[in-house]
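Customer escalation, tier 2.

The customer says the design service returned an amino acid string that "doesn't look like it belongs to this structure." They asked us to rerun it and document both sides in this ticket. The original structure tokens are below, unchanged.
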């Protein structure tokens, strides 16, 4: 353990040199990359403070410049570690050690299409199957010799839905209800159904893919490099055939409007006429006039493409998020996903999760989403606490000489700055002052976790850390950081050699958070404790 801590300390020292402007040589860069391949804690810490730049051509974007791109670089580095550790001659899947699991969990999904989602109010979206889900399994041969394909729901907003990716196939109805629905039909075709949209998958096989739009609006994203079968959206006024593009089809009571945001589409209209419309054009089917798209179309297209970077069927984690109250806006890596409650298939890797709602304190945390895992979380968004009339505290400036009247948010920013510069004692001091000055504030509750981690991992104070984690759990076991507090409590008990209490804490942690990223490590430790404690 001490050797691991020494390695981490060396990496932190190199980061300090880098952030002060000193250039690192190749051996130092290699040391950092090698360490990050097996140390999940340092990977997460690097993401949180933006210290991943190693000045090399293969390194990440500059310090704090591009958060999403930096995360992708981290993920690719970890993926290399996972690939290097696998035996290429082995074809049977076997359990991985925890660190290998953490590395494999960061593999990035591939960009293949686009879709978006903006949710309002209370949500009801569904997929109605005409047959059992097993009837749409991949590889079934139809009467004409075509292989039937399977699509998947990547995002839905129905509270009672299960937290898993749901398959869809030919004959299934798609109903967005009051919410939104995102469906991946495979081979680079994705559909975003806005509220009150009703459609049906009329064909989904290796020869033809078609969706019939009854009412509402569908935004389709087609990978221009796809090699799959023809995809089309049929309507009462004709059929829209995709040619590798982002386009929308809106079916109103008396008309069907088509708009193209990327590429072009072919219109096969009633009466047999065929025409093509391209980028920036909009038409009403059956009418000759061609108009331009509205001014907001490009912004809408950009939002859809950003959404794509987060939603994927392969290499994803299933995330089911709820909030109290409902309706919180969910963002992943600063990309808006939708409003709670929602299910989403999020690309695996290190992610910055954020929930926001007017009049409520935002929830922000870093999560490591493992490929193939399922995560279900409930967040309680607390009302803002008025922090006016702040107590006089020591200046959070580095000089530490002048006393100022600092608000809770100013203190939090100061503590985070000290933590980013690896001044653990200074950060702990400001966190402690914040908790004393504003004990009922949201900033104080968050600071309890940060303070506990510093006390446990950097100051050698497991007893104080146990108190910090326990204080958070005492105030609320359903808070946004309750999982982190529960795991921190178990770790603190281990440092204190309180084995029976540690065993009970781990058992409780696994009962409450069976899908946690720490679960494999916790299970292993629990087995060790049972062997030691058995009479």
């Amino acid at each position: 353990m001490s050797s691991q801590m020494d390695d981490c300390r060396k990496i932190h020292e190199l980061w300090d040199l880098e952030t002060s402007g000193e250039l690192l040589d190749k051996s130092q860069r290699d040391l950092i990359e090698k360490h990050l391949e097996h140390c999940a804690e340092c990977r997460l810490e690097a993401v949180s403070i933006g210290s991943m730049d190693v000045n090399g051509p293969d390194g990440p974007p500059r310090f704090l410049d591009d958060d999403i791109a930096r995360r992708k670089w981290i993920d690719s580095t970890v993926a290399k570690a996972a690939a290097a550790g696998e035996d290429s001659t082995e074809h049977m899947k076997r359990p991985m050690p925890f660190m290998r699991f953490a590395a494999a969990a960061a593999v990035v999904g591939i960009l293949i299409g686009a879709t978006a989602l903006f949710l309002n109010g209370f949500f009801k979206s569904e997929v109605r199957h005409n047959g059992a889900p097993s009837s749409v399994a991949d590889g079934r041969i139809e009467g004409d010799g075509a292989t039937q394909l399977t699509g998947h729901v990547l995002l839905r907003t129905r509270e009672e839905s299960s937290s898993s990716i749901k398959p869809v196939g030919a004959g299934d109805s798609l109903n967005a209800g009051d919410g939104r629905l995102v469906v991946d039909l495979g081979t680079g075709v994705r559909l975003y159904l806005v509220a009150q949209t009703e459609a049906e998958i009329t064909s989904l096989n290796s020869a033809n893919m078609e969706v019939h739009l009854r009412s509402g609006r569908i935004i389709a994203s087609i990978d221009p490099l796809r090699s799959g079968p023809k995809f089309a959206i049929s309507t009462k006024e004709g059929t829209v055939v995709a040619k590798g593009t982002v386009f929308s089809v809106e079916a109103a009571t008396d008309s069907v409007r088509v708009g193209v945001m990327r590429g072009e589409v072919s219109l096969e209209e009633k009466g047999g006429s065929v025409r093509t419309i391209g980028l920036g054009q909009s038409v009403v089917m059956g009418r000759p006039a061609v108009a331009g798209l509205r001014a907001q179309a490009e912004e809408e297209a950009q939002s859809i493409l950003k959404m794509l970077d987060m939603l994927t069927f392969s290499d994803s984690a299933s995330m089911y998020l709820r909030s109290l109250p409902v309706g919180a806006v969910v963002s992943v890596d600063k990309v808006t996903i939708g409003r709670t409650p929602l299910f989403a298939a999020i690309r695996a890797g290190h992610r910055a999760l954020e929930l926001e709602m007017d009049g409520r304190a935002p929830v922000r945390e870093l999560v490591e989403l493992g490929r193939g895992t399922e995560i279900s979380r409930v967040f309680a968004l607390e009302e803002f606490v008025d922090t006016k009339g702040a107590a006089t505290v020591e200046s959070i400036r580095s000089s530490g000489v002048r006393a100022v009247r600092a608000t809770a948010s100013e203190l939090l920013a100061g503590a985070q700055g000290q933590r980013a510069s690896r001044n653990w004692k200074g950060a702990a001091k400001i966190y402690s002052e914040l908790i004393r000055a504003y004990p009922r504030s949201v900033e104080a509750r968050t600071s309890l976790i940060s303070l506990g981690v510093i006390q446990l991992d950097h100051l050698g104070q497991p007893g104080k850390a146990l108190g910090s984690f326990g204080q958070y759990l005492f105030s609320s076991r359903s808070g946004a950081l309750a999982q982190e507090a529960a795991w921190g409590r178990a770790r603190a008990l281990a440092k204190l050699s309180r084995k029976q209490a540690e065993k009970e804490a781990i058992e409780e942690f696994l009962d409450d958070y069976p899908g946690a990223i720490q679960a494999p490590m916790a299970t292993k430790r629990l087995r060790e404790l049972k062997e030691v404690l058995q009479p």
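Tier 2 assessment: The sequence is consistent with the input. Confidence is low (pLDDT under 50) at residues 47-73, 85-126, 128-143, 386-405. The longest strand covers residues 208-222. Sent an explanation to the customer and offered a walkthrough call.
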